[in-house]
User: Fold Taurine dioxygenase, alpha-ketoglutarate-dependent from Streptoalloteichus hindustanus.
Amino acid sequence: MSVHRGPVSGQRRAIALATTDWVRPGGTPPGRELPLVLRPSHDDVDLAAWAGTHGGRVRSWLHRYGALLFRDFHVAQEDFGEVVRALAGEPLAYVERSSPRTEIGDHIYTATDHPADQPIALHNENSYQREFPATLAFCCAVAAESGGATPVADTRRILARLDPGVVRDFARVGVRYVRNYGEGVGLPWPEVFQTDNRDEVAAYCQERGIDLEWKPDGGLRTSHVRPALAEHPVTGERVWFNHAIFFHVTSLLPEVRDAVLRQFAEEDLPSNTYYGDGRPIEPDVLDHLRDAYRSELVALPWEPGDVMVVDNLLSAHGREPFTGARRVLVGMAGTVRWDDVRVTGETP
Assistant:
């Protein structure tokens, strides 16, 4: 097998993978621990072929840095599924959805179809679910004219920045997620649960400890609690891992938040979060959490053909607003269950 995909004198050049180091680490942005930027040491290196024989090295880097940016490999949209399989594993279906996405085939999706002028806060994919992906892979097919980066942040460092009292409170009770689905309220429940059968939705929720209530107008309200901290299944490191900020109503843009609060009673908001015991999260705690995320945020502009691989527990991710055309794809792989990573014992 070759990792070189360009013709040389009319023939494909075959190089022994074991004896040639085709990918070189270029370090991380100044003063930051992630992402590790990796570039090919030769022209036209086939990233999928290289990753297929260097999985151990990829995992080692990923568990150390949390996010890897493969640059100058010129990965095309039609090749991205193969790259995801080589770098992360078989792509997963997107279930219990919270963001509009378009599937382009084989469980490869647009990263989000959220409006271009609205930022997407840092979060860890599907941390509100019973199971969530271990790894995410993003590919830039078209870079935005301005903005549009996929920022990342080290969740180990976020946790280290948090006040121990805040951490203990969340570790003790977790995060309660309340969502409403209906006409004009977030995503409709058939899209979220990928079925229009109420019995199937009820069975899905019951199996996962999600309380549900069918509303008189045909809408749906769900409420459930998940932990706020996790222990990485490989490294054993503790991480801040939740959607407490992401789904809180105060995280909406001010003009959107004001309109939503005028239109809906608190219990009918499209989404909101609380302490796991139902208490409101105090404004100063919300500000403290946002400061921790903001302090660790790293945003590198996309270049066409870039691929970024993210360990979902070690790195949060988001999206900057942008102008112009932008097309970033995502594949999610590996399944982790909360039962296997929840924090036990004393929390500092």
